[in-house]
Amino acid sequence: MPAPPASTRFQVVVLVSGHGSNLQAILDKAADLGVQVRAVVSDRPDAQALDRARRAGVPALVVPPGAHAGREAYDRVLTATVQAHAPGLVVLAGFMRILGPGFVRHFEGRLLNIHPSLLPKYRGLHTHRAALQAGDTRHGCSVHFVTNELDAGAVIAQAEVPVLPGDDEVALRVRVQGAEHVIYPEVIGWFAAGRLGLQEGRAVLDGAPLDTPKIINWKG
Question: How many angstroms separate the CA atoms of 3 and 6, rounded?
């Protein structure tokens, strides 16, 4: 079945800060998911993800924090920049700034993030190091709704990866990213199709609250 024309697809804005491998996975699968990436917004003008957006013909925008007087001012400009593209969903794909409460409130229920751990384990940074230091045999990634509390919103889906003998942070990160590139587009597709939502702080999929995250199997 051919992909729907871009004008009829569900509109998404992606926030980035770095290399943009998750952005690329979203761009590669967007048409099949019925999604159009309307804009890519970064806090860093040198983010490689912006080049990925440009190559895909997607507007690549920069909202640098240093150009604004304080966090609240930055928050207002970022909110206005994203809202100008009227997204049905805002996707964080390696966006390394903590969003202000005004931004989170404005896009509440339509703001997703992917985190490189099996939440609630290892919120914040250096998750692969933490998993290795703890001697975990399983690690992975989680897609969750964003709230004002860091990495604490309702978890929608997870994928597990094995921690192998001899793994270092780089090897483990590469394996986890392989899973991220599978599950993030899939969850975005659920939201775009109207299957996924947030009700009273709980993720709801196909009309049923998710008491535990949906486990997505993948071949890595």
Answer: 9
pLDDT tens digits along 17-32:
999 999 999 999 999 9
Pairing mode, strands 196-199 and 111-115: unpaired
Q: Which of 115, 128, 144, 181 is catalytic?
A: 115
Instruction: Return left, alpha or beta for 85; rule: phi > 0 is left, psi -120 to 50 is alpha, else beta.
Output: alpha
Query: The whole model's pTM is what?
Result: 0.95
Round to whole Å and give the CA distance between 206 and 197. Answer: 9
Please indicate whether residue 106 is annotated as part of the active site. no
Give the C-alpha separation, 188 to 35, whole Å.
8
> What CATH topology corresponds to 6-215?
Rossmann fold (3.40.50)
Domain ranges of the chain: 6-215
Q: In terms of Cα–Cα distance, which of 72, 155, 146 is closest to 107?
A: 146
